Amino acid sequence: MREAIIERKTNETDIKIGIHLDDNRSNCRIDTGIGFFDHMLTTLSVHSGIYFDVDCSGDLCVDCHHTIEDVGIVLGQVFANALDDKMGIARYGSAYIPMDEALAFAAIDFSGRPYLVFEGEFTADKIGDMDTQMVEEFFRAFSVWAGVTLHVRILYGKNDHHKAEAAFKALAHAIKIAIKPLEDQSSLTTKGVI
């Protein structure tokens, strides 16, 4: 089974994340202390079919930035570890996801080359207890530490909750496609390594 666990402790956060790429249990366990962010990570787990076990204690007395960015870092690291050399997977995935009036798109390449393109606007400063500017920061941290090229675009919408959730769901479905093992276990690269 493709799985990994990583622990990371700094002066700002104490994080332990485990994932099981081939385990689609719906009972993921997520606790970051930020309600809306927990909801987004649960959405990412459920829609990707990947079991997440996320435990984070962060300096929320400052704000949500360190917690969300550092969870993105560690989640990226566990994906990189669980996929090892990334050989024998579909590698690419993309999805358009609607949520009521909002529509979001995500495309991912497990390329080993970290890059993020994010396009999306929010009208409020916060969704629950999560700063809306942290949506992009999470995607950036994840893409860098997972070593993926990631494009996320919120095409339109009025409700910020719907826009953010559509973006996380689009990422989840893109990941689900990209990590699917190829029947012939071939590698989708002309270089021979990813």
Fold and architecture overview:
The model has no long low-confidence stretch (mean pLDDT 94). The chain starts with a strand and ends in a 16-residue tail after the last helix. Strand 1 (3-9) and strand 2 (13-20) form a beta hairpin. Helix 2 (65-83) packs parallel to helix 3 (133-146). It has helices at 35-48, 65-83, 133-146, 160-178; strands at residues 3-9, 13-20, 29-31, 51-58, 92-99, 102-109, 115-119, 126-127, 130-131, 149-156. 43% of the residues are buried. Helices cover 34% and strands 30% of the residues. The chain has 194 residues and is α+β, with helices and mostly antiparallel strands. It has four helices and ten strands; from the N terminus they run E-E-E-H-E-H-E-E-E-E-E-H-E-H. The chain has one domain: Imidazole glycerol phosphate dehydratase, domain 1 (Ribosomal Protein S5, domain 2, 2-Layer Sandwich), CATH 3.30.230.
The ordered string of helix (H) and strand (E) elements is EEEHEHEEEEEHEH
CATH topology: Ribosomal Protein S5, domain 2
CATH first level: which class? Alpha Beta
CATH superfamily: Imidazole glycerol phosphate dehydratase, domain 1
What form results from the Cα inertia axes? globular
What do the pLDDT scores average to? 94
- How many beta-strand runs? 10
Number of helices: 4
**The CATH architecture:** 2-Layer Sandwich
Distance between the termini: 20 Å
Biggest sheet details: 4 strands, mixed
**Cross-sheet strand order for the largest sheet:** 1-2-4-3
Q: In the residues, how many domains can be counted?
A: 1
Low-confidence stretches: none
Instruction: Round the Cα radius of gyration to an integer and report it.
Output: 16 Å
Question: What structural class should be given to the helix and strand makeup?
Answer: alpha+beta
Helix content: 25-40%
Report the β-strand fraction as a percent range.
Answer: 25-35%
